């Protein structure tokens, strides 16, 4: 396909030039009948890619892996990870990194095919993905991006014409995932456990150059890296808590060093506020429940810390002490960020004791009254225009008056508070029951109407969308019995 010359691929492939123990060269498996399902024009544009002269058929060949982009050097990355607390060797079992594309604004992006066949790391898996789960990832990752949450993005979905066997027979698909890199806490764990310190050093240098170049000159750059990753991952989890997102499988192999959300397997959004909310079918202990996510970020950072010890100082005791100081600073820094975020959700720009009490009261009121997390903030912003009797009850009215009093005491006008609130509280989140219905409609009825509606409205999550009120309403039973699944 000579037309590829016009697309604008600009592959750099720096990862494939690292130690060969970090990956396996691997071509995507050929698929019998690739068909374009979704293509993200807006993302293609930001990457500086132009497909206007490429036919749908050729696009499908490219994004299924049947045809390689010019300059791609396909590899499967090696990594390990703590899954539900247990250390395991993993690696890309069903994903292939085509390489890193350099965008017009000089940013590197991994271009990865997910569901593109077996690799040396597949263990017993088939290397495939179902159309249903790739549509789910496409929809939710794009919604997260537009909500301002750092995340991997989805460039394309191609159906493969193959059957994929899970509990049922599914249509197969390949998703093109775009991310600033797929380097994980688990990548460091792999090197630390199975390779040598020289490789760890080379790799850490690479990560700093790629993601935190400002730390390169730091007197102790591995320690500075740890701090930087800690801050990025804290900001990420604060964003998740802000919009009600539950990742569902925060194993160390699913935590990005650049602090981006990825691996949209069993994730979901919380409707009624409760910190114990968990939907993943395999998370029986609630390890990755909504309110446990910050603690897990810290736990995962400890895993990263352990790998960096030999680079922090030759004297292990000294290195451990320095690293511990960083990790021990987590709770206080996190707590401050958490109050800030909760303050902004209520239009408050500074948070001290009175504001903290107000925030806590609202959260426990929501928890005790099975109130919808997203809609409660919208109700506050529109008070007293609402229909739900929960909010006319005296306890809520009293809370609202206290909020008004605190705004006044802070010299914040209602208009200014509402303006702040609008920037921090999404009007629309992908409601679990609607996401599942949209996927049923596409996969079982070839009906894309709801899916397209969710995709479209998800692009402007902070705007009131009066025509789409039906997308804002939680299910009457509040997601009772809703379950999500890993790796389908
Ligand atoms: P995940 O739960 O998606 O983070 O996946 C955990 C590990 O299982 C990763 O190493 C994946 O590459 C691998 N994996 C998941 N599904 C498959 C599959 N169908 N075939 C091969 N490997 C898989
Ligand atoms: Mg994963």
Description:
- The protein has 488 residues and is α+β, with helices and mostly antiparallel strands.
- It has two domains: 2-179, no CATH class; 183-488, no CATH class.
- The chain has 15 helices and twelve strands.
- The strands form four sheets. Strands 2, 6, 7, 8, 9 and 10 form a six-stranded antiparallel sheet that branches.
- α6 runs antiparallel to α7 (293-312), α6 runs parallel beside α9 (330-345) and α7 (293-312) runs antiparallel to α8 (316-328).
- The radius of gyration is 23 Å and the shape is globular.
- The mean pLDDT is 97.
- The site of magnesium ion has 3 residues, from loops.
Short overview:
By secondary structure, this protein is α+β, with helices and mostly antiparallel strands.
Characteristic terms for this protein:
488 residues; alpha+beta; two-stranded antiparallel ribbon; binds magnesium ion; single chain; binds adenosine monophosphate; 2 domains; 12 strands; globular; 6-stranded antiparallel beta sheet
Element layout with pairings:
Blueprint: E1 23-25, E2 35-39, H1 41-46, H2 56-64, E3 75-77, E4 80-83, E5 86-89, E6 95-102, E7 108-114, E8 129-130, H3 131-146, E9 153-165, E10 169-179, H4 185-194, H5 197-211, H6 221-243, E11 245-246, E12 268-269, H7 293-312, H8 316-328, H9 330-345, H10 353-368, H11 373-382, H12 394-409, H13 414-424, H14 432-445, H15 449-457
Helix pairs in contact: 3-14, 4-7, 6-7, 6-8, 6-9, 7-8, 10-12, 14-15
